Amino acid sequence: MMFNLCYGMKTINITQLPGDPFSHPNYAVDLAGMDAGIDVWRAVGNWRCTAGPWGNNTFFFVSCDASGNHCKVRCADGRDRVITLALTHGAGLYVRPVVGKVYRDGQVMYEEGRVAQPGQNVTGNHIHAEIAEGVQISKHYDSSMGVYRMNHELNILKYMFVCRERSVIKNTKGAVLPVCYTAKYSPGIIVPEGKDMLLDIVAKKEKLNIRKSLTFSGGKNTSPVLYCMPKGSRAAVTHFTERFEADGYEWAQVSLVVDDKTINGYVQLDTKSYIIKVRR
Ligand SMILES: [Zn+2]
After folding, report:
1. From the CB of residue 114, how many other CB atoms can be counted at a distance below 10 Å?
2. What is the pLDDT of residues 222-243, one digit of tens each?
3. Residues of each domain in the chain carrying CATH 2.70.70.10
4. 25 C-alpha to center of ligand 1: Å?
5. Ligand 1 centroid, distance to 43 Cα (angstroms)
6. Assigned CATH for 11-180
7. For the segment 238-270, what is each residue's pLDDT rounded down to a tens digit?
């Protein structure tokens, strides 16, 4: 089973980019989640903890199969690589990575924190994330950049997807992030965020309700059902709400024509009931 290389946080809120101050001349990013409380990094695909704790509570994880043997993941440039993911600054209050443990898809690997060396500027809870090709178990001091970094480091902004199924984008600091729509590798739906691409929602189950509005009561959408999409039918996506609604799901605004009548409404993005396809 092949997985896309994806961010493991539910909310993508980037606070530092490569090139930003606070020792970010390399390809690392800081993600501050929801800005309040402690957010976590969940495995997208399988990851084995290979080493740690290194400086600033850094742990290293390698992409692997369900048995823990390292294997390739699909990167956002369309190529497959063995990837090492290094996560830094976690507090380890609730989640303490265990070296040798295989974190399977969906499991919590790491939590936000502000663990730092004396004198380092850490303003709030976040996870500092960087990636490299191959199996890496440490960093070396790069005197030309003045930072510790892994060998064969890759620019996380170019190679890691935001998975719409798992994450909502709150702030990218202007970076254009590649987006995929399912954690499992599926060709043809890799879309650079901010670029126009026509997408369809295809009903996977027998009934996929299109609701009139985003009106919730008791955690459920209570607005009228405008249309019930039969299995296999398509609706054009006009907009993603880009946040979790009161029912815990993202919703998409969709449009389709039935019997010469245009229906505009909202569909719940529960991955059990739909798939996303690029418009034919
Ligand atoms: Zn950082």
Report:
1. 14
2. 999 999 999 999 999 888 877 7
3. 11-180
4. 10
5. 20
6. 2.70.70.10
7. 888 777 788 888 899 999 999 999 999 999 988
